Records
---
Amino acid sequence: MSRILDAEQMRRALKRVAHEIVERNGGTSNLALVGIHTRGVPLAERLAVMIAEIEGPPPPVGALDVSLYRDDTGRGGGNARLQPTDILFDLSDRKIVLVDDVLYTGRTIRSAMDALIDLGRPASIQLAVLVDRGHRELPIRADYVGKNVPTAPHERVVVRLEESDGSEGVFVEHDKGESGDNR
């Protein structure tokens, strides 16, 4: 397994993304962040703090579980492990920034957009990811990317966050089999 980002590089990448979000949206008015479980949620919370350091009060942050919206559940991925969707603000007419750790095929993001639309009608949906590893199966691209990491399909991107894993870093490892999601 090789490290591609350490804790400080992750912080700098997220800080740059926070600046880009504020710049593109002309501030934080009517902006909200929605993290996709599991690692997208703490990343969204970190971005909200960084955005507040740049531009006043932090935007609201929600958590989204897309398990029931996946089109690949049951295709070797095992049973969906449901986690709470926790969005305590109205999505209608807000600029929503979806946040996830790794963008790969685009299927998770498609699922997240379906889930968001079921909860309200945002003015816009933007996407921020820590790592874009390529290999899209759907026409989805991130608006904000911490780091582009070209990978082979048999490789796996592993994101570790202090909040969920007890350590920080982004790694690429050679996948030893077909199990797992090859994030």
Note: The first helix runs from residue 7 to 25.
---
Amino acid sequence: MLWEQGPIRPPSEAGSLLLRVTRNCPWNRCAFCATYKGERFFRREQAEILAEIRAMRQAADKIEELAGGQITDALIQELYHTPGYGAQYFYLANWLKNGGRHVFLQDADSLVLRTGELVTVLRAVKETFPSVERITSYARAGTLARRKPADLADLAGAGLSRLHVGLESGSDEVLRYVQKGVTAAEEILGGQMVVAAGISLCFYVLIGLGGRNFQAEHPRATAAVINAVRPAFVRLRSLSVQPGTPLHESMMAGDFVPLSEDEQVEEIKTLLEGLDPYNGHLVSDHILNLLGEVEGLLSRDKERMLDMCRRYLALPSSERLLYRLGRRLGDFNSLSDLSGPRRAQMEERLQLLQSHGGVEETITRLKRRFV
């Protein structure tokens, strides 16, 4: 018996074993999200989930038997290409080789399951794989706001370590516009209860989500929600409007005007200026983020991160364009690369693109590879 895997997980859970406890998203109306469009939501039966945990254990035992004491890269590759094993064994073997410590529950909102059912699943994971140290999941802020503090305490006690929550914005106007289905007050309530339960909380902020209409409101209101909750992590995501989404339709109609990349950096600066210097981490761990080095501990690194934004915005427009192209081609990872050995090559590529009038089109196309 093999086990299901959903379509996405956070970049920080790249090394985690994926356990699917729900299918798709119970809300599925966010104007900016294309991930689950056209898919129905299902709560998976507890018995089905527990059977898959046992199947993972049986597969792990088989892998360890084949390994004879040490799981090697050669064995992992062999499993991938051997009929009857394939990709799931490949990922499981990699997970075991790296210690088998982290598990991520899919899909978009595991907290819609009844508390008792989820507690049973969490305990089964810990009992079946004693090496597991951390179990994490996505959750919707609205779902968390409807939970009782005792529910979250029970989940924490059973082993739920961290929740990844798409805050997106702290502005009620923006939240309504993108049909997020939650209010800033609910984001605060749900987030505060998670923190109080001792569960690590990670908020995701979608830079540029307010577009030009809410350019001033979006970062300031978002900072206010974060300050009220003080999550352990705030992860930045740069908006890329995807074809097939309601937000793309609004953009094509001229109702939604997206920010330029320079304006997104300005928005990050405004967000940072509004954040309290508390003991939480700001993380920029997605390739779409232009300034990946804008990350650190807010209590220690806030001014350094602000300085990175100021340095970029103070560059001449020609330098900002050169950096943007280098970043999207994967040759630049920090502002210091503008004075590095790859600058001359990047200048040649920029000049060639400018001679054909296709710089912005090329950058947009390069960005779409990572969505």
Note: Residues 1-139 form one domain.
